[in-house]
Design a protein that fits this description.
The protein is mainly beta and 752 residues long. It has three domains: 327 residues, 5 Propeller (Tachylectin-2, Chain A); 153 residues, Exo-inulinase, domain 1 (Jelly Rolls, Sandwich); 204 residues, Jelly Rolls (Sandwich). It is built from no helices and 48 strands. It is globular and about 85 Å long. The chain starts with 38 loop residues before the first strand and ends with a strand.
């Protein structure tokens, strides 16, 4: 069980979680019509679970989609399952399969009290491979986390764990152990297998593993710095490897600001750089936002996986917390983290959830899981003429191709996406289009090649692309998408955006005509054959807040204007050279002490965008906990949100933190935050205010390292009857001595 007290904490004050006694501008989203059978509404796990955290997904060779989750009770009052498995055909209706582990198959080297967390599912070399976290092993005294691995012939199990960790505990000279959490497997386009893992104490690492995914090879490589990322997940897209990781506190109830960020590299070992060229492994840590809360009911969106539907549309599956129902038990129990699903778009080469709109709350189109061929893709003989039926222990009813089999329904004109499974050692050729202009893709297991060609006339090859196929066993997934003037083919084992071979061709001068799909082989075994019209990609991001007319501007040329009010003023804060100069002290607004000074002012009614320019040089690499300064939205000392440039151990980041009561009527408070991005010694910050559909105040944070380009991130809400003031703050530590300099505060109307 994961109690509310977090096992891992990204702090930005005296503590990230404080117990004591005594979006902004939500992006416009057009909701899909609520039509039965075509839409879903988050959370997708609601029908079978209250909480389904750290989800991992795969489409099994039996045609079902399987979702795996960490070890929490499914419902309030349930006993905690040791990991969970559920399955669906359409992402609308679900069957609960059972637990991953029980007393009969629990790893022998896991302490009886250990948590078995954060499963990651892959299909490798003919079997299903499940990686998982073990929080405490029998190998060492104390908390010595490790990565375990289990295998099964069926995605529902039974799972057989290995006799030892695939990544053993990692110790330091002082006897402490690094956090070896949150595994994620991956196959690179050269067919090599990789395993990513790690968390805030030690950072993210990757190690190559053997062809069966069970044994590490060589030395690991650090890919992301400690104190910033966990929950790694890697995908390939357009020749880039994208490392995505979750950041901040996973489990702080209504104050949870967990979010997902990405960097990319041409090498699975990095370095991974974000859209600004910042390294995920640097002290001033990079990361381009993939998924973050937007001011609706969902907060703490993270620890995700990625899937692709039959039309080629990517989706992100993740957990999040309903801020109005954050606990599985009352008053202060397990975080209630159901599983959510949303469209994942690629905007200017970067993954963005719903083009940057973030978690959805209303009806959304379901992933496409059917085929235009009709019939049952899991039994391809129902969609093809000339294909005989066979049986397979993993695939069930399969098709066997002797000669040429033709689909009974034509593939769409102009473009089609075909997905099918083929046995690794077999050879099958897929043909799209009509004589004399066709696209031909051959999976040649015997020769170890994937070949994609444009064919004119009887046999003239206009253009061909060839890629090697690594040796292996079991099933492989072949996807072919021909649209416009290009045709691309990929082969993978897991079909999780991790191809082991990629080919591509172009065919200028013609487009594909509607024609039956042809499969040619000599005893080739195929399964899960589906054809769809390719999804139309979303390529334009939803608009971010933009400032319009200036409402007012406060400078500090003549001191602090009467419109401001000091709370707990500190000696040494002064107006100097047109700036407000604020020496950092060992004070903080977090928790029960409430020792930090604040400078606050009333804000206008309606929507606005507030901006300040701040100079605060926190250096790099050294530990300067928790020096910080920035903007604050302050209702009272136990109810505020603050946006600050902050030093957290040897990491430098910008955090949008939130302190509030644990629950209505509960005097205890909780503090956590969302990461917005990387700071600069002189940078600009914005907070945009609006209201949401429930009439709540929504405050969204944005930052700029150069005063020109802006990155917008998470949003926090306040009740509609609240009347917060906006202000400035600084503090967190006095050593080494440093001043924060606020240059001015400008408040704008939002641009129309």
């Amino acid at each position: 069980m994961r109690p509310i007290t977090p096992r891992r904490t990204l702090a930005s004050g005296v503590a990230a979680l404080v117990l004591m006694t005594g979006p902004g501008l939500t992006a416009p989203v057009t909701a899909a019509p609520e039509e039965e059978g075509t839409t879903y509404t988050n959370a997708v796990s609601e029908s079978f679970a209250d909480t389904y955290a750290d989800p991992a997904v795969i489409q099994g060779k039996d045609g079902w989609w399987y979702a795996y989750a960490t070890a929490d009770p499914l419902r309030a009052g349930d006993e905690p399952g040791v990991g969970h498995i559920a399955r669906t055909r359409d992402w609308a209706s679900w069957d609960y399969v059972g637990t991953i582990f029980d007393e009969t198959n629990r790893p022998s080297w896991a302490e009886s009290s250990a948590g078995l967390w954060a499963p990651d599912i892959r299909y490798v070399d003919g079997q299903y491979v499940l990686y998982f976290t073990v929080t405490d092993t029998t190998l060492n005294p104390g908390e010595d986390s490790a990565i375990g691995v289990a295998t099964a012939d069926d995605p529902g199990g039974p799972w057989v764990p290995a006799d030892e960790p695939v990544v053993p505990p990692r110790s330091l000279d002082d006897g402490r152990f690094l956090w070896t959490f949150d595994p994620a497997g991956f196959t690179s386009t050269d067919g090599r297998q990789w395993l990513y893992y790690g968390s805030y104490f030690g950072g993210l690492q990757v190690t190559e593993v053997s062809a069966d995914g069970l044994t590490p090879i060589g030395e690991p490589t650090q890919v992301a710095i400690g104190d910033r990322y966990e929950g790694a997940y890697v995908v390939e897209h357009d020749g880039w490897y994208y490392l995505m990781g979750s950041s901040a506190n996973c489990c702080a109830g209504p104050a949870t600001g967990y979010s997902v960020f990405a960097g990319r590299s041409r090498d699975p070992r990095g370095p991974f750089l974000d859209a600004e060229g910042l390294d995920l492994n640097a002290s001033v840590t990079g990361g381009t936002t993939v998924l973050t809360q937007n001011g609706n009911s969902w907060v703490g969106a993270g620890h995700h996986a990625v899937l692709t539907d039959a039309a080629g549309q990517d989706f992100v599956v993740y957990h999040a917390i309903d801020k109005d129902e954050p606990w599985l038990t009352d008053p202060f129990g397990i975080n209630r983290r159901p599983m959510l699903l949303d469209r994942l778009d690629w905007i200017d080469g970067w993954p963005r959830t719903r083009a940057g709109a973030g978690p959805s709350e209303g009806p959304q189109p379901l992933p496409v899981t059917d085929s235009v061929l009709g019939g049952d893709p899991a039994d391809p003989t129902t969609g093809f003429d000339g294909m005989r039926q066979g049986q397979d222990p993993q695939g069930g009813s399969i098709g066997v191709v002797d000669g040429t089999a033709a689909s009974g329904v034509a593939a769409p004109a102009g473009g089609a996406r075909v997905r099918l499974d083929v046995r690794a050692e077999d050879t099958v050729t897929l043909t799209l289009g009509e004589h004399p202009k066709r696209v031909r893709v051959t999976y040649d297991g015997g020769a170890g090649e994937l070949r994609t060609a444009v064919v004119m006339g009887a046999r003239k090859v206009v253009e061909e692309s060839v890629a090697p196929l690594p040796a292996g066993q079991g099933w492989r997934t072949l996807t072919v998408e021909a649209a416009g003037r290009t045709a691309d083919a990929q082969v993978s084992a897991s079909d999780l955006n991790d191809p082991m071979a990629v080919t591509g061709t172009s065919f200028p001068g013609f487009s594909l005509r509607a024609a039956p799909v042809l499969l040619t082989g000599d005893g080739a075994r195929v399964d899960n054959v589906g054809v769809q019209t390719p999804a139309e990609p979303v390529t334009q991001a939803v608009p971010d807040p933009e400032p319009g007319e200036v409402l007012f501007r406060d400078t500090f040329d003549g001191g602090v204007a009467p419109s401001w009010e000091w709370v707990r003023p500190e000696e040494g804060i002064r107006a100097e050279g047109g700036d407000l100069v604020w020496p950092l002290r060992s004070v903080d607004a977090v928790g029960g002490a409430n020792t930090g000074a604040l400078l606050l002012r009333d804000m206008p009614d309606g929507d606005w965008i507030a901006e300040t320019e701040l100079t605060l040089d926190l250096g790099e690499d050294t530990v300067r906990n928790y020096q910080q300064a920035g903007l604050i939205v302050h209702e009272d000392d136990d109810d505020f949100a603050r946006l600050g440039s902050v030093a957290i151990w040897n990491t430098r980041t910008v955090e949008f933190g939130r302190e509030l009561a644990v629950a209505e009527g509960d005097e205890r408070t909780i503090y956590a935050g969302a990461i917005i991005g990387a700071p600069a010694p002189t940078m600009s910050m914005r907070i945009a205010h609006t209201t949401n559909a429930e009439g709540e105040h929504v405050y969204r944070a944005g930052i700029s390292r150069d005063g020109t380009s802006w990155a917008w991130g998470a949003a926090w809400t306040f009740p509609g009857d609240a009347d917060p003031r906006l202000g400035l703050y600084a503090g967190g530590g006095a050593e080494p001595p440093v001043d924060a300099r606020f240059h001015e505060l400008t408040v704008y109307e939002p641009a129309p």
